[in-house]
Amino acid sequence: RNTVRALAAAGCTLVFVGIESGKEEVRRRLLNRKVRDEDLIRAASLLHEHGIKLGTYNIVAVPGTSWRDDLATLDLNLRCRPHTTQALFLQPFAGTAVHETAIREGMWGPKDDERLEACGQGLNRGSLLRYTDSRERRRVHNLRNLFGITVAWPRLRPLVPALVDLPAGRIYARLGALWYIYCHLFVVHPGLAGPR
Asked: How far apart are CA 153 and CA 161, in angstroms?
């Protein structure tokens, strides 16, 4: 509470929080994040209470999870009510627990480490993980692209399980990209969108 008060007094207008996963067990076991859902929700509430906008970072396509786990991440975001959000595909860097899980699940191999290094951080077009189920891959990708739009318009949430099954990946990718640009210009950097 004191930290948020100090941020508001200093003129802070936006804070990004790494939710990463809507499942505490996934955050703790695979992502090495020991934060409870209640703590994230309380922090979001304090930021709202003090007039500070909230942005969230989230990870989808975590090995050992399914698109339904990513749906739980969406639901936690809906409870936190961020002004902007990003859902990024997991990148299983060597030396992490999630890297070992990806290898164990058959979603990652030694050559994939080289591919990841070649792509660099920030890869956002698609997951580098090898899915054996193309339907699961489509669901994860579609959910990632609909994530920010659904957080902005929570009434879409009941439709998401049906929408992620549709073969509309290119449309969703364009919608997601446009939404990201809009948020970046009007929420994260509102001064960039207007006249100087």
From this structure: 15
